[in-house]
Amino acid sequence: MDLSSTIHVSIEPVSNSYQVEEPITLHVVLQNRASHPITILTWDSPLDPKAGILGVFYARDAQYDTVVRGDVVNFSRKLPPTRDSFVEVGSHQQTETWVKLPVMQLRTGRSYLIEARGKWKAVWNGRLGDIDKESLDSMTGGLSGQFKYCSAMLNVT
Q: Is residue 5 helix, strand or coil?
């Protein structure tokens, strides 16, 4: 399974226009393009409930190609992952979430692309209930791989 052809993520700002010092809210949709279900460990991915503060998302100035990041928090995870750390996505189905980013030092009058970059920790072929507990607990037996996704343009007023 090639993750880049199996998983597609779209990122859309809830609004196309934000004011300086206003937190940005993103609508994130993950599509499974495979002909079978997949199970994803959400840690450090666009689906992670803490993605907004983990540095998964950042802004890229459309004119100057410079990167702007918000404050990033680093923390350790308790192992093994709990069941709510996994998402099952059916064949040709999708799942969605909303992510609130911390305030970033964006400049008035500029346009930005919001990007997500990181690594899928583990993605398994199959339904969550069909993957053995040992594989889930040890985060093994699945695939991992880099990801990079971009959003639509965001204007700062």
A: helix
Whole-angstrom distance, CA of residue 7 vs CA of residue 70: 26
> How far apart (Å, rounded) are the C-alpha atoms in residues 13 and 19?
13
Cβ pair 116, 146 in contact under 8 A: no
In the predicted structure, residue 69 carries a pLDDT above the cut 90: no
Q: Is the peptide bond before 80 cis (omega within 30 degrees of 0)?
A: yes
Cross-strand bridge partners of residue 38: 89, 125
Whether 32 and 3 have beta carbons less than 8 Å apart is answered as no
Q: What is the pLDDT of residues 82-129, one digit of tens each?
A: 999 999 999 999 999 999 998 899 999 999 999 999 999 999 999 999
Q: What angle do CA 97, 81, 88 make, to 5 degrees?
A: 45
Q: Residue 157 in 3-state DSSP?
A: coil
pLDDT band at 20, cuts 50/70/90?
confident
Element (H, E) at 147: strand 143-156
Q: How far apart are CA 93 and CA 76, in angstroms?
A: 31
- Asked if the model's pLDDT at residue 155 lies above 90, the reply is yes
Task: Specify the residue for token string 């979430």.
Answer: 97
